[in-house]
Amino acid sequence: MAASTEQRPAGDGLPGAGFRLDGRVAVVTGASSGLGAAVARALAGAGARVAVVARREDRLATLAKEIDGLAVGADLLVPEQVDAVVPRVAAELGGPEILVNAAGNVFSEDRAEDEPADAVASTLALNLVAPFRLSQQVFGHMRAAGRGAITNVSSISGRVGIPGIPQASYAASKAGLSGLTAELAVQWARHRIRVNTVAPGFFRSEITESLYATERGQTWLRRNTPLPDDGIAQDMVGAVLWLVSDAGRYVTGQTIVVDGGWTAR
């Protein structure tokens, strides 16, 4: 009888053991604030060696020192800087087995018919093209390791329209992430590389600060969110840790929505 090629999860069978990331190298983009920073701390706390990537190098340096990680300053709107990220991480920490694409931004608040072409291009470049390029770059390292996990950070805007908040190119980029996720998951499954997406609802961040700053905005959020609590970055961390660890070893190609019930209404 041929030997089984099945890989068993790490750990001793206890519920928490599968969430450990000891010895693995992780890359987290958008790590200078918000969800990216929270994810970087969680992965480091689970035992990973974490490279944090963003434009704001002062914030990165502080976070990298806190988690004993590697700060990689890069503007992901610049292709040459995108292409330099993974080689540097591999040279200084080792080949990445985990990639979390958390960087993203909204470059226009115009209605769809008025959104400038340069804003559309920047939105797609940062929110969709950069995650694809970084996924391509980590592929060889993950294939060599015999496993890997990529988690993209999308948004409920990629699934539903949000009345009163025009963001056509942003919504298109986030919907595109879910399509990219499914395609890469199928293509790379034979290498045990899993690719998933987390789609957060509204939570406090630099992008949404103006919404939370007014009583009108907070009332609108409470009225449309079934759960009675404000979302915070830490609410998304559990889903990301599950997806990148052995606890989620049989999950791939999925978009996991974390939105307090917004899209379930």
UniProtKB/TrEMBL annotation:
Keywords: Oxidoreductase. It holds the Pfam family adh_short_C2. The keyword Oxidoreductase applies. One of its GO terms (molecular function) is oxidoreductase activity, acting on the CH-OH group of donors, NAD or NADP as acceptor. InterPro entries: NAD(P)-bd_dom_sf (IPR036291), Sc_DH/Rdtase_CS (IPR020904), SDR_fam (IPR002347). Belongs to the short-chain dehydrogenases/reductases (SDR) family. This is SDR family oxidoreductase.
